[in-house]
Design goal:
Elements: H1 11-31, H2 37-44, H3 48-54, H4 58-81, H5 86-103, H6 105-113, H7 122-140, H8 153-163, H9 176-187
Helix pairs in contact: 1-2, 2-3, 4-5, 4-7, 5-7, 5-8, 5-9, 8-9
Length: about 190
């Protein structure tokens, strides 16, 4: 009888995978999505074959980083559900999402420009479930407008990333905190 579960990685393979992910995160942040897998391997201190063994394509690597982000946000959404004030819990989640988007522009751009790379992973599905529950609680407490859904959050975050992106010319970008507060004011039920 065969099992459909993936075999557990050996300790050294697990460490190498984590080093590749950390290096990719850093390289994408510094150089954008055009970084080559060879550069990621060099930054991770592993051979390029090791990178490709864990991530056969760059899209697979970006997907793994996106899944980490979704899992992190799912944890934050779970914690937000513990707040007795659902509106406050929702605001905390959105503020944290905005902070991460501002700090990790490369992955935010990848998720925006290549939405197909960020398919419905288990972490993303869990995030949507938890966010939906939080939103429904905020609506039930009559603190959130009735037409907002968890599926609207990615569009808000993409808009925020674009609005606060560094400009080559023109006035400097506004702070993400200001725009987050404007967004939250617009979502609040009056």
């Amino acid at each position: 009888m065969t099992s459909s579960a993936a075999p557990a990685l050996r300790a050294d393979a697990r460490r190498n995978r984590e080093r590749v992910l950390a290096a990719a995160r850093e390289q994408f942040t510094q150089r954008g999505l055009d970084v080559h897998m060879e550069q990621i391997a060099r930054a991770a201190g592993v051979g390029v074959g090791t990178v490709y063994r864990h991530f056969p394509t760059k899209e697979d690597l970006v997907q793994a980083l996106a899944d980490e982000r979704f899992a992190y946000f799912a944890e934050k959404a779970r914690a937000a559900l513990d707040d007795p004030d659902p509106w406050n819990g929702f605001c905390d989640l959105i503020r944290e999402a905005a902070r991460v988007v501002a700090e990790d522009r490369a992955l935010s751009e990848a998720m925006d420009q290549h939405a197909g790379m960020c398919a419905e992973s288990a972490a993303k599905v869990r995030l949507i479930e938890l966010s939906s529950e939080l939103i429904e609680r905020a609506k039930a407490s009559d603190q959130m407008r009735a037409d907002f859904t968890a599926q609207d959050i990615p569009s808000l975050m993409r808009g925020l990333a674009r609005a606060t992106a560094p400009q080559d010319s023109g006035p400097p970008a506004m702070s993400s905190e200001r725009y987050v507060e404007i967004m939250l004011a617009g979502l609040r039920h009056r």
